[in-house]
Design a protein that fits this description.
22 helices, Rossmann fold, about 675 residues, single chain, seven-stranded mixed sheet, GMP Synthetase, Chain A, domain 3, alpha/beta
């Protein structure tokens, strides 16, 4: 086995081995769709056959659900793979499709968002009000000199103004680049610089775990590291004092409120850039994933409608994620709004002010569809079933899972304690890069298997292959690939076409996308995702590059070298475990040093990247070519028996590291 294979083969230990112990709780063949649910489902089993018979025709029908200012002349141009063009020649405006057309059709009084602030303040925003706010914001951005194609950085809490800002950018053709509010000034600065953003939209702060969490100071610090930002638009959320740079900083409530609610939207080409989203890569520099307009909105709107069986007149939909991640873009903003959905948007954490906060929200607003991450579900499991049992969750009719593979036990807990045993669960696999759902059950058509995303969405080409790219047999483990272009696919890595080709399209030949995830096929041909096979960790649904964390550690003056791995964690999916070699003159002060290094990583990247454990070691396991064998470090971190060490320059290194394991510090 080559070094690459040794590093990247998915571990069979992650496969659904717990199925036997759970079999008594799972019907033979899985949980069938409830009869009444299937009878009224938006899509049934026949959709797979229809999409297979005419894939491009299927996506053309999906696109026709949107309003186009000019029709397309070609559904797909794949003449220069991997650079796709969807709905060639067509023109549309995303904001018009998400807002204006619903108001024009007489649905202006329909609620778009029930927003709940963590301290308990609330706002109800209708589609008519949303249209006014988006138009005001669009006019405000125009007054700041923003034009079509310009990049706008958005560094915001979970408040309605974040949605207004995104839609306003889409309305005027500016490219938004939302940065998760938990990222540090350094991470924000690198993204502003890479995108060459000239305007930043932020807030004084947001509320998290019962206290204000500052954002504007991070922007101020970030802007000392980059040039070219001429305006910072600031929402007053927490009323905390902030530094002010005259001529650059502008209050949202002063600029936006004074704008007209009239704005003439322009139609843009289907391939016009919509947004950039930065995701960690296997090098220290994050990748700017570019999504465009027509194909993205087509797939997001259709998957939202089909996967969640969305009934716009009766459903109350809640994607419990942050808008700063792709889940928030696709299934808090663009998909739900395109389908005239009433959504819940919550600012804070699940345990503020108490552990039943989410279930109070479900009860109060009559939430019918809940979409969240396995990490959160496992946290609820830890808190106990009595917490959700205290609320009336009978309004729920469908549950969803997103962010990482969900283990069968968590799936069943979710089904039994949140869904009351009656709600189908759609376990969705997709990525920042794919834009929307790619592998998922359809709730009116699929018998559900706890822990499996099951099969590709209609119109999507997916396969599980071996090292050489050959399809695997049922029961085997391999690599997930996508075999056909899809409408919401990323178009490139911002400013780096070669990195786009090398990262995603080089491993298995022209036109085959390597997803970076391991997968197993069961005897029915259903897909079980096994998680990342590269060096990107999935921590609470957030993708963090090992190299980015290693770079942060090595930037500390005491550290000479670092290796970082993601180890299985019962709550967060993966926890970050770091192994560091100190510089010659540095002193290992034990727990004090661990705390210093952990805090350093928090400052460089953000709290989400803070290592769960940090171990000081004398050497790291390396191959003769100098490559760090992270697979062996993962074995150590997860207390597994070590795999093959024959390719190491010094196999005794692993014995030394293993001996230190009990002294490893966990995060405070």
């Amino acid at each position: 086995m080559s070094e690459t294979t040794d590093e990247q083969t998915p571990s069979s230990e992650q496969s659904p081995s717990s199925e036997q112990s759970l079999s008594s709780r799972v019907p033979a063949g899985g949980f069938p769709p409830p009869t009444d649910f299937a009878a009224t489902a938006n899509v049934g089993p026949e959709v797979y056959e229809r999409a297979a018979a005419d894939r491009l025709g299927f996506w053309a029908e999906a696109a026709a659900r949107l309003d186009w200012a000019e029709p397309w002349t070609e559904v797909l141009d794949w003449s220069n793979p991997p650079f796709a063009k969807w709905f060639v020649g067509g023109k549309l405006n995303v904001a018009v499709n998400c807002v204006d057309r619903h108001v024009d059709a007489g649905h202006g009084e329909k609620v778009a968002y029930h927003w709940i602030g963590e301290p308990g303040d609330t706002r109800t925003i209708t589609y008519a009000q949303l249209k006014d706010e988006v138009c005001r914001t669009a006019n405000a951005l125009t007054s700041l000199g923003v034009t079509a194609g310009d990049r706008v950085a958005i560094y915001m809490p979970m408040i309605p103004e974040t949605v207004f800002a995104m839609l306003a950018c889409a309305r005027i053709g500016a490219v938004h680049m939302v940065v998760f509010g938990g990222f540090s000034p350094e991470a924000l600065a690198s993204r502003i610089s890479d995108a060459d953003a000239e305007v930043v939209i932020t807030a004084d702060g947001g509320y998290r775990r019962g206290a204000p969490s500052a954002l504007k100071p991070n922007v101020d610090e970030a802007l000392t590291k980059v040039e070219g930002v001429r305006s910072v638009l600031v929402v007053k959320r927490t009323e905390t004092d902030v530094e002010w740079t005259e001529g650059r900083d502008v209050w949202w409530h002063e600029l936006v409120a004074s704008q007209s609610t009239e704005h003439e939207a322009q139609a843009f080409d289907a391939e016009h850039p919509l947004y950039i989203m930065y995701t960690s890569g296997t090098t220290a520099k994050p990748k700017g994933i570019l999504h465009t307009t027509g194909g993205y909105l087509t797939q997001i709107a259709y998957t939202h409608w089909a996967t969640f069986d969305l009934k716009p007149d009766t459903d109350v939909f809640w994607t419990a994620a942050d808008v700063g991640w792709v889940t928030g873009h696709s299934y808090i903003v663009y998909g739900p709004l395109a389908n005239r959905t009433t959504s819940v948007m919550y600012e804070g954490t699940p345990d503020t002010p108490h552990q039943g906060r989410w279930w109070d929200i479900v009860q109060e607003y009559g939430v019918t569809i809940l979409y969240t991450a396995p990490t959160t579900i496992r946290t609820f499991m830890k808190w106990g079933a009595e917490v959700p049992a205290a609320a009336d969750l009978s309004s729920l009719r469908l549950l969803g899972s997103v962010g990482e593979p969900i283990n069968p036990e968590a799936w069943l807990w979710y089904h039994e304690n949140i869904g009351g045993g009656r709600c189908p669960i759609v376990d969705t696999w997709w990525q920042t890069e794919t834009g929307g759902h790619m592998i998922t059950p359809l709730p009116g058509a699929t018998s559900l298997k706890p822990g499996s995303a099951q099969r590709a969405f209609p119109g999507i080409g997916a396969a599980v292959v071996d090292e050489e790219g050959n399809p695997i047999e049922p029961g085997a483990t391999g690599y997930l690939v996508l075999t056909e272009p899809w409408p919401a696919m990323l178009r490139t890595v911002w400013g780096d076409d070669e990195r786009y080709k090398d990262t995603y399209w080089s491993r298995y030949g022209e036109g085959v996308y390597f997803a970076g995830d391991g997968a197993k096929l069961d005897e029915d041909g259903d897909i079980w995702l096994l998680g990342r096979v590269d060096d990107v960790m999935n921590v609470s649904g957030h993708r963090i590059s090992t190299t980015e964390v290693e770079s942060a550690l090595v930037s500390h003056p005491t550290v000479a070298e670092a290796a970082v791995v993601g180890a299985t964690d019962p709550t967060t999916g993966q926890g970050i475990v770091a192994f560091v070699i100190l510089r010659g003159d540095a002193v290992d002060s034990g727990e004090d040093l661990v705390k210093v290094l952990r805090q350093h990583v928090r400052k460089e990247i953000g709290p989400i990247a803070s290592p769960r454990q940090i171990m000081v070691v004398a050497e790291l396991p390396k191959t003769r070519s100098g490559k760090i064998m992270r697979r062996l470090l993962r074995d150590i971190a997860e207390n597994r028996e070590l795999g093959d060490v024959s390719t190491l320059t010094d196999s005794s290194v692993m014995d030394l590291i293993s001996a230190k394991l009990p002294a490893t510090s966990s995060e405070d």
